Write a sequence for this structure.
């Protein structure tokens, strides 16, 4: 299930490194369970410790029945004091559950990643703006495959959507991109891509209501060059004109302009011959002239 915006707004569950004193008693177990909310109570006595290595990594761990598992790993910046990022691990499996990356001050959030406790696959990423609170982007992933399913980019206010990218769960290729009008409510344009190759197939632009079509562009599935552009009249249904392009070069070959009914041809511009053919209302040719 995809994580919704409501899960991101007001995110405040930051990692809470457990400061063990190194001795063994029930208070350690209780504090451990309080910080790892939702985990099952582990049977037996927990031995805990802290280890710092030469790479400025501080690891908190516990040992149960002779098995040593990490709780958190804190990566420090070059000064050896300021936090760069924190990794949190499952108390049951030792799998990575969460990564939190901070900005240069070691306090302001940069991004957060959360992983499935069952599969260990990435579930979602949350990117923050400079204040560390306002959303910048969100990416959702499949808990089964770890492949990206959806990416959402937000406006500077962190609430209005700028654009959304949808991906194929099978191939991981982007299959749809939706960009929104300035009000961030209605789609401005939608691009469709091949789930096999990721190449652009079609782009549709909408009027301000986000429903009425303004124009449609069709692209070659092989070359990704523009093949055809169809513009519509104000009703979004009646054709205004059609442009045809070369699939090899992308050059415009022909322009067909229609009368108000969207069916009767008004004139055709043939760019390969530099001619304009004007038609009568009954469809017969009225005249042919050279394009200036």
């Amino acid at each position: 299930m995809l994580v919704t915006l409501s899960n991101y707004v007001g995110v405040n569950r930051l990692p809470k490194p457990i400061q063990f004193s190194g001795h063994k008693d029930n208070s350690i177990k209780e504090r451990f369970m309080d910080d790892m909310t939702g985990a099952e109570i582990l049977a037996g006595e927990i031995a805990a410790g802290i280890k710092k290595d030469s790479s400025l990594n501080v690891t908190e761990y516990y040992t149960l029945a002779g098995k040593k598992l990490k709780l958190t790993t804190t990566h420090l910046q070059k000064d050896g004091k300021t936090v760069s990022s924190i990794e949190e691990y499952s108390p049951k499996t030792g799998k990575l559950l969460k990564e939190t990356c901070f900005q240069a001050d070691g306090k302001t959030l940069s991004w957060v990643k959360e992983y499935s406790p069952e599969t260990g696959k990435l579930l979602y990423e949350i990117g923050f703006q400079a204040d560390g609170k306002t959303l910048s982007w969100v990416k959702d992933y499949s808990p089964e495959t770890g492949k990206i399913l959806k990416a959402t980019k937000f406006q500077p206010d962190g609430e209005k959507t700028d654009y959304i990218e949808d991906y194929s769960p099978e191939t991981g290729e982007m299959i749809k991109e939706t960009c929104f009008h300035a009000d961030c409510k209605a789609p401005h344009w939608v691009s469709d891509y091949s789930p096999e190759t990721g190449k652009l197939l079609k782009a549709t632009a909408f009027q301000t209501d986000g429903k009425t079509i303004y124009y449609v562009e069709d692209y070659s599935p092989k070359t990704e060059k523009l093949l055809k552009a169809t513009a519509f009249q104000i009703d979004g249904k009646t054709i205004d004109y059609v442009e045809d392009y070369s699939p090899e070069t992308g050059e415009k070959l022909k322009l067909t302009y229609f009368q108000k009914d969207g069916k009767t041809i008004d004139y055709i511009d043939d760019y390969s011959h530099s001619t304009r053919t004007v038609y009568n209302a009954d469809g017969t040719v009225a005249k042919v002239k050279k394009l200036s």
The mean pLDDT is 82. The two ends are 59 Å apart (CA to CA). The chain has two domains: 1-130, 160-292.
